[in-house]
Amino acid sequence: MSPKTLISWNVNGLRAVLKKGFSDFLAEAAPDVICLQETKISNDLCDQFEFEAYPYTYWNCADKKGYSSTAIISKIEPLSVTYGLGIEAHDNEGRVITAEFEDYYLTTVYTPNAQNHDENRRPRRLDYRTKKWDVAFLQFVKELEASKPVIFCGDLNVAHKEIDLANPKTNRKNAGFTDEERAGFDAILDAGFVDSFRQLHPDEPQRYSWWSYRAAARQRNIGWRIDYFCASESLSSQIEAADILHEVLGSDHCPVTLTLQ
Predict the structure, then answer these.
(1) Catalytic residue status for 56
(2) Which one of 88, 107, 209, 242 is least enclosed by Cβ atoms within 10 Å?
(3) How far apart are CA 201 and CA 65, in angstroms?
Protein backbone atom coordinates (compact mmCIF):
# COMPACT_ATOMS: atom_id res chain seq x y z
CA MET A 1 0.00 0.00 0.00
CA SER A 2 1.28 3.45 -0.94
CA PRO A 3 0.24 6.84 0.44
CA LYS A 4 -2.13 8.93 -1.69
CA THR A 5 -2.23 12.18 0.31
CA LEU A 6 1.06 13.84 1.16
CA ILE A 7 2.04 17.07 2.91
CA SER A 8 5.44 18.72 3.18
CA TRP A 9 6.19 21.53 5.64
CA ASN A 10 9.28 23.37 6.76
CA VAL A 11 8.16 23.94 10.34
CA ASN A 12 11.15 26.10 11.39
CA GLY A 13 11.34 24.28 14.72
CA LEU A 14 8.99 21.43 15.62
CA ARG A 15 8.71 22.38 19.29
CA ALA A 16 7.75 25.92 18.28
CA VAL A 17 5.09 24.86 15.78
CA LEU A 18 3.59 22.37 18.25
CA LYS A 19 2.76 25.40 20.41
CA LYS A 20 1.03 27.03 17.43
CA GLY A 21 -1.53 24.38 16.50
CA PHE A 22 0.48 21.78 14.61
CA SER A 23 -1.36 18.84 16.17
CA ASP A 24 -4.75 20.35 15.30
CA PHE A 25 -3.61 20.97 11.73
CA LEU A 26 -2.38 17.41 11.38
CA ALA A 27 -5.62 15.97 12.76
CA GLU A 28 -7.74 18.10 10.42
CA ALA A 29 -5.65 17.66 7.27
CA ALA A 30 -5.07 13.96 8.03
CA PRO A 31 -2.61 13.15 5.22
CA ASP A 32 -1.28 9.64 4.83
CA VAL A 33 2.23 11.07 5.29
CA ILE A 34 3.63 14.42 6.39
CA CYS A 35 7.26 15.25 5.67
CA LEU A 36 8.93 17.89 7.82
CA GLN A 37 12.02 19.99 7.31
CA GLU A 38 13.97 22.14 9.75
CA THR A 39 12.60 20.29 12.77
CA LYS A 40 15.65 21.44 14.80
CA ILE A 41 15.30 18.28 16.88
CA SER A 42 18.30 16.33 18.16
CA ASN A 43 18.45 12.55 18.56
CA ASP A 44 18.04 12.69 22.33
CA LEU A 45 14.63 14.40 21.94
CA CYS A 46 12.98 12.25 19.28
CA ASP A 47 11.31 9.86 21.73
CA GLN A 48 9.36 12.77 23.25
CA PHE A 49 7.16 13.12 20.17
CA GLU A 50 4.16 10.94 19.34
CA PHE A 51 1.44 11.75 16.83
CA GLU A 52 -1.98 10.20 17.13
CA ALA A 53 -2.88 8.03 14.12
CA TYR A 54 0.76 8.15 12.92
CA PRO A 55 2.60 5.13 14.34
CA TYR A 56 5.57 5.35 11.94
CA THR A 57 7.92 8.25 12.60
CA TYR A 58 11.46 8.61 11.28
CA TRP A 59 14.00 11.29 12.19
CA ASN A 60 17.26 12.45 10.67
CA CYS A 61 18.94 14.85 13.06
CA ALA A 62 21.89 17.12 12.42
CA ASP A 63 25.07 16.61 14.38
CA LYS A 64 24.74 20.24 15.48
CA LYS A 65 21.94 20.57 18.05
CA GLY A 66 19.01 22.81 17.17
CA TYR A 67 19.93 22.93 13.48
CA SER A 68 18.36 21.71 10.23
CA SER A 69 17.00 18.10 10.53
CA THR A 70 14.06 16.30 8.91
CA ALA A 71 11.27 13.86 9.72
CA ILE A 72 8.74 11.59 8.01
CA ILE A 73 5.51 10.90 9.92
CA SER A 74 3.35 8.21 8.34
CA LYS A 75 0.14 6.23 8.82
CA ILE A 76 1.53 3.55 6.50
CA GLU A 77 4.61 1.51 7.31
CA PRO A 78 7.31 1.89 4.65
CA LEU A 79 9.01 -1.13 3.16
CA SER A 80 12.35 0.44 4.06
CA VAL A 81 13.81 3.73 5.28
CA THR A 82 17.22 5.24 4.58
CA TYR A 83 18.88 8.38 5.88
CA GLY A 84 21.00 10.88 3.99
CA LEU A 85 22.61 10.61 0.57
CA GLY A 86 25.17 8.05 1.64
CA ILE A 87 27.94 10.66 1.26
CA GLU A 88 29.63 11.64 4.50
CA ALA A 89 30.36 15.20 3.38
CA HIS A 90 26.62 15.85 2.91
CA ASP A 91 25.10 13.79 5.70
CA ASN A 92 25.94 15.55 8.96
CA GLU A 93 23.07 18.07 8.80
CA GLY A 94 20.13 15.64 8.78
CA ARG A 95 18.76 16.86 5.47
CA VAL A 96 17.37 13.75 3.76
CA ILE A 97 15.13 10.80 4.62
CA THR A 98 13.80 8.30 2.05
CA ALA A 99 10.87 5.96 2.70
CA GLU A 100 10.20 3.17 0.22
CA PHE A 101 6.57 2.31 -0.43
CA GLU A 102 5.06 -0.24 -2.79
CA ASP A 103 4.65 2.11 -5.74
CA TYR A 104 7.37 4.73 -5.22
CA TYR A 105 10.13 6.15 -3.08
CA LEU A 106 9.28 9.24 -1.02
CA THR A 107 12.19 11.51 -0.11
CA THR A 108 12.01 14.53 2.14
CA VAL A 109 14.81 17.04 1.65
CA TYR A 110 15.91 20.28 3.26
CA THR A 111 18.23 21.74 0.65
CA PRO A 112 21.12 23.84 2.00
CA ASN A 113 20.59 27.59 1.83
CA ALA A 114 23.22 29.43 -0.21
CA GLN A 115 23.28 32.00 2.66
CA ASN A 116 24.14 35.67 2.81
CA HIS A 117 26.65 37.44 0.62
CA ASP A 118 30.37 37.30 1.26
CA GLU A 119 32.80 40.14 0.68
CA ASN A 120 32.50 39.52 -3.09
CA ARG A 121 28.71 40.01 -3.03
CA ARG A 122 28.20 36.29 -3.62
CA PRO A 123 26.14 33.95 -1.42
CA ARG A 124 28.63 32.30 0.92
CA ARG A 125 27.52 28.70 0.41
CA LEU A 126 26.52 28.96 -3.25
CA ASP A 127 29.34 26.82 -4.65
CA TYR A 128 28.72 24.04 -2.14
CA ARG A 129 25.00 24.22 -2.77
CA THR A 130 25.09 24.22 -6.58
CA LYS A 131 28.31 22.41 -7.51
CA LYS A 132 28.20 19.69 -4.86
CA TRP A 133 24.84 19.27 -3.10
CA ASP A 134 22.53 19.78 -6.10
CA VAL A 135 24.61 17.40 -8.22
CA ALA A 136 24.75 14.71 -5.51
CA PHE A 137 21.05 14.96 -4.66
CA LEU A 138 19.93 14.67 -8.28
CA GLN A 139 22.20 11.67 -8.76
CA PHE A 140 20.74 10.12 -5.60
CA VAL A 141 17.10 10.38 -6.70
CA LYS A 142 17.94 9.21 -10.22
CA GLU A 143 19.59 6.12 -8.75
CA LEU A 144 16.44 5.46 -6.72
CA GLU A 145 14.37 5.92 -9.86
CA ALA A 146 16.23 3.06 -11.53
CA SER A 147 14.14 0.66 -9.43
CA LYS A 148 10.84 2.54 -8.99
CA PRO A 149 9.37 6.06 -9.37
CA VAL A 150 10.37 8.80 -6.94
CA ILE A 151 8.54 11.65 -5.24
CA PHE A 152 10.73 14.14 -3.42
CA CYS A 153 9.47 17.06 -1.42
CA GLY A 154 10.62 19.80 0.85
CA ASP A 155 12.26 23.16 1.10
CA LEU A 156 14.44 23.28 -2.01
CA ASN A 157 15.55 26.84 -1.23
CA VAL A 158 15.08 28.09 -4.80
CA ALA A 159 12.36 30.02 -6.59
CA HIS A 160 12.51 28.56 -10.09
CA LYS A 161 10.92 31.26 -12.25
CA GLU A 162 10.08 34.93 -11.86
CA ILE A 163 6.44 33.94 -11.24
CA ASP A 164 7.65 32.12 -8.11
CA LEU A 165 8.58 35.19 -6.07
CA ALA A 166 7.11 38.62 -5.53
CA ASN A 167 10.21 40.70 -6.36
CA PRO A 168 12.31 38.86 -8.94
CA LYS A 169 14.22 41.86 -10.26
CA THR A 170 15.57 43.01 -6.88
CA ASN A 171 16.50 39.43 -5.90
CA ARG A 172 18.40 38.42 -9.05
CA LYS A 173 21.70 37.74 -7.26
CA ASN A 174 20.34 36.85 -3.85
CA ALA A 175 20.36 33.37 -2.33
CA GLY A 176 17.40 31.38 -3.63
CA PHE A 177 17.18 33.18 -6.97
CA THR A 178 20.68 33.08 -8.41
CA ASP A 179 21.20 31.84 -11.95
CA GLU A 180 23.14 28.87 -10.57
CA GLU A 181 20.36 27.73 -8.21
CA ARG A 182 17.70 28.15 -10.87
CA ALA A 183 19.82 26.13 -13.29
CA GLY A 184 19.92 23.41 -10.64
CA PHE A 185 16.13 23.26 -10.72
CA ASP A 186 16.21 23.22 -14.52
CA ALA A 187 18.43 20.15 -14.22
CA ILE A 188 15.81 18.42 -12.05
CA LEU A 189 13.15 18.96 -14.72
CA ASP A 190 15.54 18.00 -17.53
CA ALA A 191 16.28 14.76 -15.67
CA GLY A 192 12.65 13.71 -15.94
CA PHE A 193 10.94 15.08 -12.82
CA VAL A 194 7.85 17.29 -12.81
CA ASP A 195 7.05 20.22 -10.53
CA SER A 196 3.63 19.03 -9.43
CA PHE A 197 2.22 22.46 -8.55
CA ARG A 198 3.26 24.01 -11.87
CA GLN A 199 1.95 20.98 -13.76
CA LEU A 200 -1.53 21.77 -12.48
CA HIS A 201 -1.18 25.55 -12.08
CA PRO A 202 1.21 26.60 -14.87
CA ASP A 203 0.48 30.32 -14.91
CA GLU A 204 -0.95 31.00 -11.45
CA PRO A 205 0.88 33.96 -9.87
CA GLN A 206 1.31 35.08 -6.28
CA ARG A 207 1.34 31.55 -4.86
CA TYR A 208 4.12 31.45 -2.31
CA SER A 209 5.25 29.10 0.46
CA TRP A 210 7.74 31.26 2.39
CA TRP A 211 7.65 34.84 3.64
CA SER A 212 10.22 36.85 5.57
CA TYR A 213 9.28 37.76 9.12
CA ARG A 214 10.25 41.33 8.27
CA ALA A 215 8.10 44.22 7.02
CA ALA A 216 4.78 42.36 7.33
CA ALA A 217 5.78 40.34 4.27
CA ARG A 218 3.22 37.61 4.83
CA GLN A 219 0.32 39.98 5.33
CA ARG A 220 1.35 41.73 2.11
CA ASN A 221 2.06 38.40 0.35
CA ILE A 222 5.63 39.41 -0.49
CA GLY A 223 6.79 35.82 -0.67
CA TRP A 224 8.68 33.07 -2.47
CA ARG A 225 7.62 29.60 -3.68
CA ILE A 226 10.54 27.47 -2.53
CA ASP A 227 8.72 24.36 -1.21
CA TYR A 228 7.92 21.66 -3.74
CA PHE A 229 6.65 18.21 -4.56
CA CYS A 230 8.58 16.86 -7.53
CA ALA A 231 7.69 13.49 -9.06
CA SER A 232 8.99 11.13 -11.69
CA GLU A 233 7.33 11.75 -15.04
CA SER A 234 5.89 8.24 -14.89
CA LEU A 235 3.73 9.43 -11.97
CA SER A 236 2.61 12.70 -13.57
CA SER A 237 -0.68 11.29 -14.88
CA GLN A 238 -1.55 10.20 -11.31
CA ILE A 239 -1.20 13.70 -9.84
CA GLU A 240 -4.75 14.65 -8.89
CA ALA A 241 -4.07 17.82 -6.86
CA ALA A 242 -1.19 19.95 -5.67
CA ASP A 243 -1.72 22.94 -3.44
CA ILE A 244 -0.04 25.53 -1.22
CA LEU A 245 -1.81 26.04 2.12
CA HIS A 246 -0.93 29.70 2.59
CA GLU A 247 -3.57 30.17 5.28
CA VAL A 248 -1.82 27.71 7.65
CA LEU A 249 0.30 29.61 10.16
CA GLY A 250 2.94 28.55 12.66
CA SER A 251 6.12 28.86 10.59
CA ASP A 252 7.63 31.28 8.09
CA HIS A 253 6.81 28.54 5.55
CA CYS A 254 3.39 27.04 4.91
CA PRO A 255 2.57 23.44 4.04
CA VAL A 256 2.40 22.21 0.45
CA THR A 257 0.36 19.19 -0.61
CA LEU A 258 0.22 16.44 -3.21
CA THR A 259 -2.71 14.12 -3.87
CA LEU A 260 -2.34 11.04 -6.08
CA GLN A 261 -5.18 9.23 -7.79
Answers:
(1) no
(2) 88
(3) 38
Q: Judge contact between 32 and 6, C-beta under 8 A.
A: yes
Instruction: Break the chain into its structural domains and give their ranges.
Output: 5-260
The rounded distance, in Å, linking the Cα atoms of 214 and 217 is: 6
Determine the Cα–Cα distance for residues 229 and 249; give it in Å rounded to an integer: 20
The number of beta carbons lying within 10 Å of the beta carbon of residue 112 is 20
Single out the catalytic residue among 155, 164, 195, 227. Answer: 155
The pLDDT, as a whole number, for residue 116 is: 74
Write out pLDDT tens, residues 172-203: 999 999 999 999 999 999 999 999 999 999 99
Question: Pairing between strand 5-10 and 33-37?
Answer: parallel
- Segment 31-65, tens digit of pLDDT: 999 999 999 999 999 999 999 999 999 999 999 99
Task: Find the catalytic residue in 110, 134, 195, 208.
Answer: 110
Q: Distance of CA 236 to CAs 105, 110, 229, Å? A: 14, 23, 11
3-class secondary structure, 242 = strand
Cα–Cα dist 232/19, whole Å:
36
Contact predicate 237/247, CB 8 Å? no
155 is catalytic: yes
Yes or no: is domain 5-260 CATH 3.60.10.10?
Answer: yes
DSSP string, 167-198: -TGGGTTSTTS-HHHHHHHHHHHHTTEEEHHH
Question: Following DSSP, what letter does each residue of 43-78 receive, concatenated?
Answer: GGGGGG--BTTB-EEEEE--SSTTS--EEEEESS--
Residue 130's nearest CA partner among 118, 116, 114, 141 is: 114
